[in-house]
Each structure stands twice: as C-alpha cells, then as structure tokens.
Amino acid sequence: MLIFSMSYGVLIFDIPLIANNETFTARSMPTFLAVFGTFLSLLLITRRDQSQQKQSEKMNFRLGLTFLALMSAYGFAIRPAGFVLATVVFLFAGFWLLGERNATKNLAIALPVVVFFWWLMSELLGVYLPALPEILND
C-alpha cells in the first residue's frame, strides 16, 4: 500500500491544471489521497504488533484473488456487454462469492441498484454509459 500510495503521488503531477490560482484543482483530491494513503501505510508499518500478524493467517487470500479476477473480467466486459448487464453479473457473482446463495435475493438487490445508478449517471449527470450490449445498440 505504501508503494502504491507513493507511486500515485508521483503520477499526480501528470494531471494538467487548467487554472493554477484556484483553491481546489484537479490535483487536490488525488494529492490528499496520496498523502493520506502514505501516512496510513507508514502508521501500519510502524505500529504492527503480534496480534495483527496472527490475524493475517486467517485472511482468505484465495477469495481476494478471485475478486481481483472478477473485477478484471468486469472491466473487460463492461463495454461489450453494456453497463447494466455487466454490473448485474458482477454484483451477482460477488454476492455469490461472499456466501449469499439466494439467487432471487441477489438479483433483487443488484438489478434495482444498477438501474438506479445507470439512470443517475446517464440522465442526471450526463455521463454516457451504454446500458445494453454493443450488438443491441447498432
């Protein structure tokens, strides 16, 4: 996390500034996140005790790697499958991995949340997100 935060902090300088005299610029929030992430990482490194070391043995690294693979697949599927379908499948699979096996409940939670978020982004904020697969949009 320390290396990630510091690398993120270095990359902030690639963000172009439109107005240098503004209080809040495009670099403000990334700078805060980089500094805060670096601070917390250093704090965790210096304050680590024996109980935290034993806790890491209980972590499910296989589940974490599975989620990383799922997120990568979601990133590749969002354009060809469309935002709504890809995100519903992503959330459904995530719920399943976390142990919720009730398919009706998973779909009843994922579908309204995704449709509301798509509506919010595309209709209220004006961000284009293709809701349907590319094949149906042509």
Structure keywords:
mainly alpha; 7 helices; single chain; 138 residues
The total strand number stands at: 0
Number of domains: 2
Number of helical stretches of at least 4 residues: 7
Q: In angstroms, what is the radius of gyration?
A: 20 Å
Strand portion:
under 5%
Helix content estimate: over 70%
Largest sheet: none
Shape annotation: flat
Q: Helices and strands, in N-to-C order?
A: HHHHHHH
State mean pLDDT (0 to 100 scale). Answer: 87
Termini distance? 43 Å
Provide a descriptive summary of the structure in words.
By secondary structure, the chain is mainly alpha-helical. It folds into 2 domains: about 1-55, no CATH class; about 60-135, no CATH class. The chain has 7 helices and no strands. It has helices at about 1-10, 30-45, 50-55, 60-80, 85-95, 105-125, 135. Helix 1 runs antiparallel to helix 2 (about 30-45). The protein is flat.
Architecture blueprint of SSEs:
Blueprint: H1 2-11, H2 28-46, H3 50-56, H4 61-81, H5 83-97, H6 103-124, H7 134-137
Helix pairs in contact: 1-2, 4-5, 5-6
